[in-house]
Amino acid sequence: MIILDTNAVIYYLQNDKKAVQTIDKIRKKENLGISTITEIEIFSFPNLTEIQQLSITKWLEEITIFPVDSFLSRQAARLRRIYKIKTPDAIIASTAIFYNAKLITRDKDFKKIKELDILAC
Q1: What's 106's domain CATH number?
Q2: CA 85, 91, 97, 103 torsion: positive or negative?
Q3: Chain-centre distance for alpha carbon 90
Q4: Which range marks the domain in which residue 109 is found?
Q5: d(CA 6, CA 105)
Q6: Domain count, the chain
Q7: Which among 16, 39, 45, 66 is least surrounded, fewest beta carbons within 10 Å?
Q8: Which long-range contacts (CB under 8 A, 24 or more apart) does 36-45 make?
Q9: Closest alpha carbon to 106 in 89, 81, 83
Q10: pLDDT tens-digit profile of 41-97?
Q11: d(CA 34, CA 118)
Q12: Within 13 Å and on the Cβ side, how many CA atoms surround 7?
């Protein structure tokens, strides 16, 4: 399993060459997933058109969306305390850690989280 950080999804949906190559290559071998936090973040852009929303919805149907439960919330709080990261990043990181998944991201803040296995895109 591979968890995608929000920025990886955004770059992918914007057809960023490196993100598309990385994610499409991995997608052939691994299942992809996101946290519900990423789902919230990608649908909250102010100028998102209805066509873009439909495109994102279709793309999301092909991956796993992991809900945030009480256990993940508490693990995210622990990561936030230890590493001084933002709440959404802590939830995404705790999701990857819980599911023993690699995290695809360009966010350098994740590098300080020792428990994470990170792939750049």
Answers
A1: 3.40.50.1010
A2: negative
A3: 11
A4: 2-120
A5: 8
A6: 1
A7: 45
A8: 36/65, 36/66, 36/67, 36/68, 37/6, 37/68, 37/88, 37/91, 37/92, 38/4, 38/5, 38/6, 38/9, 38/92, 39/65, 41/6, 41/88, 42/6, 42/9, 42/10, 42/13
A9: 89
A10: 999 989 999 999 999 999 999 999 999 999 999 999 999 999 999 999 999 999 999
A11: 14
A12: 14
Distance CA 84, CA 77 (A): 10
The number of CA neighbours under 13 Å toward the Cβ of 47 is: 0
> Is residue 34's pLDDT more than 90?
yes
Contact predicate 5/104, CB 8 Å = yes
* Cβ 3 vs Cβ 100: under 8 Å: no
